[in-house]
Amino acid sequence: MSNQIVRDHTRRLLVARYELEQMQCKAISRHQNLPNQIRYEYFLKSSKLPRNSSKTRIRNRCIFTGRPRSVYKLFRVSRIVFRELASKGSLIGINKSCW
């Protein structure tokens, strides 16, 4: 496995671990009816979470090649690997069209 795939996998694990805490801090810090001091405390708390625990740091990559572009979300493979797997018949319900 390439280094990028491993890095992306660790980021996905961190996002899953801190997702609830991140959502709580974000919701409380944006709540208008709470006092500013409490909102600011939760804003600081959210900024102290690991950077890689943010959803925006995740990059969709092909699980076979690590290619970052043109990845089908449903299958998590790139278009090149998708075409090879579809031609071999490895993907259930998908076949190459011919007319």
TrEMBL record:
Signal peptide limits: none
Compartment(s): Mitochondrion
Superkingdom, natural source: Eukaryota
Family named by the database record: Belongs to the universal ribosomal protein uS14 family.
Key words, A-Z: Mitochondrion, Ribonucleoprotein, Ribosomal protein
Principal place of residence: mitochondrion
InterPro entries, per the entry: Ribosomal_uS14, Ribosomal_uS14_CS
Keyword Ribosomal protein carried by entry: yes
Protein name: Small ribosomal subunit protein uS14m
